[in-house]
User: Fold this.
Amino acid sequence: MRSRTTGTYVALMVVLIGAAVGLSAWLVSSLNEMHERFARESPGLGLAFLVVLILLMVLGAGWLGRLAWRSRSIGTPDQPARVPEDVIQAAEVQADQAEGVIRKLGDDAVKQELNQELTEIRAGRDRREFRLVIFGTGSAGKTSLVNALLGRDVGKIEATIGTTLRGESHTHTMQGVEGTVYLTDTPGLSEIGSGGLAREQEARELAARADLLIFVVDHDLVRTEFEPLSALVRQGKRSIVLFNKSDRFPEADREAILAKLRERLRGLVAPEDVIVGAAAPRPIAVRVRREDGSMETVLEVQPPDLDALRSRIAKVLKAEGETLRAGNLLLRAHLLSRKAQDQLSAERDRRAEDVIERFQWITAATSFTNPFPALELLASGAVQFQMISELANVYGITLSTSNVRIIGTEMIQMLVRLGLVEATTSLIAGVFKSTMVGYAAGGAVQAVSLAYLTHISGETFAEYFRHGQTWGDGGMQAALIRQFDLTSRAEFLQQFAKQAVQKVSSRILHGGSKSQEHPASRN
Assistant:
């Protein structure tokens, strides 16, 4: 049978070679005939034909050479890719931006944590280290996979979901990979109970720092698995998906699940990056003969089936490792910069709230002690100018005195033009009556009303500075009305009254302690 097949192949090759030789002879004969025809018409025309023919032959040879070179390059995907210098430079720029934001933070503990991560990012450029993060649900067998890859037990394995409480990294040397590989086990996704959401958030943050992500599943993907994986892949995270515990399925079911996984991940993860394996195969029952000749059934432990995964990891790291590291440095620097900016924004918002609260009390006190209503808006205007200036400083914006007066006066005029002063006074007075305060003194109503308006305008200016000195659609008027609608008058009055009681109580207690200490001092 084999000799007949070989003979068929030989005959086919002879036919193909004969056809090629015949076609070449015909082509040479035709070109020679055309040259002679042109030469008979004119020697110059014959020479021009030869020049054009030689030029076409040179271009054709160049094209064939380039095609062969590209085919050679495509045929050797394991060659390490050159690290793009522009990515490294972009990572350095992002790191510098993150450092500038971190320097502005006030929380020393957070600043130290972010600076430590910044140091790791910068040091990562010169280290040949690869960070592999094992990611997935708590029941998929992540810790078993880490143990199997390392060849030793480093993680606790239990049936209970949520055994891995924090990320744990382990050094690993892989055959075919030059450099140090760090395997990081992570808490599981979709854990219930105390701390489940916090552990999932930590797992997502660790996954975002990975050079290569190993996503572990033990069945077809469900929504709670597909969403985080797709988000990380779209973020640019290189991923390999391991269909773990495949030994528990019949071969037909295993192939069907693998095909379904590859179909579901089409466009996100390449088919060759969806791997079948078993980190901790179930023991197999075998019959053994005892010394007395009787037979018994024992469970024989099976070795891990991870050769395909190891081979794929080594192949990816060898071919793409340096590019992955460079891209991951850029991504980590970007995430760090954003994290630092979010922390700075949160700190600024808290400081802005303190400024607004302080000036609403100053406005209330100024209004309550001023018997002339005509001077109240002027007094509150002066207070508002100072509040605007301090809010600008909180958000790192420098405003001249004239600019503060311009936008402050515009805000006061807008409050009057929209009728918010009268509306607020009427609403506050109504709340006073409904809360059985009775017909309170007009000064108290005016004080609380102007405090409320100061709070509204302060929140509006905080939003203005937070968004880079832009009011958004509709300008100042729309921003002011939006804050007016968002802030409940009743809730503000309740909170204001609660703070007033606390302030008065503190004053009384503080004054009482002084009066008690005074006689003793005289003795």
User: Anything to note?
Assistant: The first strand starts at residue 129 and ends at 136. The chain has a mean pLDDT of 76. The chain has three domains: 16-74, 128-329, 370-515.
